[in-house]
């Protein structure tokens, strides 16, 4: 008689990925030039910074954080700055250790991105400016690029 997996669980030896919770971990908004900044006629330059992190919080349970910093400037004056850290708690089982970093760096931020995009657009609108809608981000390409940059450094 063969062992059968329990109902609702993945078959033995297969990977599983589930979302337990998605939340805003940190949100910061600066509107340093108000009210004069609303009189600006020039279009602002938008700068975007991105960071990701992933930490194990329990066996098979990880927190992933996607932080995006958006700065709008005209000349050398900052119109507004928004930084949002969108986080999630994920259960990841059956993934080999050598592939886990890729899951944390690609799949988790891909899940979190639509939420942080909405958080930033809403914060910018609440600051009195037209919302900024971030373009999609290819986290797989960013991870591959980062891995490619790290490989020559370890080869020396």
Helix and strand layout, with pairings?
Layout: E1 16-30, E2 45-58, E3 61-74, E4 77-93, H1 97-126, H2 139-155
Antiparallel strand pairs: 1-4, 2-3, 3-4
Helix pairs in contact: 1-2
Strand order of the largest sheet: 1-4-3-2
Instruction: Tell me the major beta sheet.
Output: 4 strands, antiparallel
SSE ordering: EEEEHH
What is the CATH homology-level superfamily?
SecB-like
- Low-confidence stretches at least 5 residues in length (pLDDT < 50)? 1-5
The Cα radius of gyration reads: 20 Å
Outline: elongated
**Would you tell me which CATH topology applies?**
Bacterial Protein-export protein SecB
Secondary structure tally, helices: 2
According to DSSP, the number of beta strands is 4
How does this model look, in words?
By secondary structure, the chain is α+β, with helices and mostly antiparallel strands. It has a single domain (about 15-130), classed as Bacterial Protein-export protein SecB (Roll). The protein has two helices and four strands; from the N terminus they run ββββαα. The chain has helices at about 95-125, 140-155; strands spanning about 15-30, 45-60, 60-75, 75-95. Strands 1-4-3-2 form a four-stranded antiparallel beta sheet. β2 (about 45-60) and β3 form a beta hairpin. α1 crosses α2 (about 140-155). The longest helix is centred in the last third of the chain and has 30 residues, at about 95-125. It is elongated, with a radius of gyration of 20 Å. It starts with 15 loop residues before the first strand and ends with a helix. The model is unreliable at about 1-5 (pLDDT under 50).
């Amino acid at each position: 008689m063969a062992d059968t997996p329990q109902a609702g669980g993945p078959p033995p030896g297969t990977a599983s990925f589930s979302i337990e919770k998605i939340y805003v971990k940190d949100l910061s908004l600066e509107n340093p030039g108000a009210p004069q900044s609303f009189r600006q006629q020039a279009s602002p330059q938008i700068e975007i910074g991105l960071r990701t992190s992933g930490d194990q919080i329990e066996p098979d349970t990880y927190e992933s954080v996607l932080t995006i910093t958006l700065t709008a400037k005209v000349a050398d004056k900052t119109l507004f700055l928004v930084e949002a850290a969108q986080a999630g708690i994920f259960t990841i089982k059956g993934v080999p250790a050598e592939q886990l970093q890729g899951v944390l760096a690609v799949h988790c931020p891909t899940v979190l991105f639509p939420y942080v995009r909405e958080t930033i657009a809403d914060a910018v609108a609440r600051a009195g400016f037209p919302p900024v809608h971030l373009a999609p981000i290819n986290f797989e390409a960013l991870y591959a690029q980062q891995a490619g940059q790290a490989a020559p450094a370890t080869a020396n």
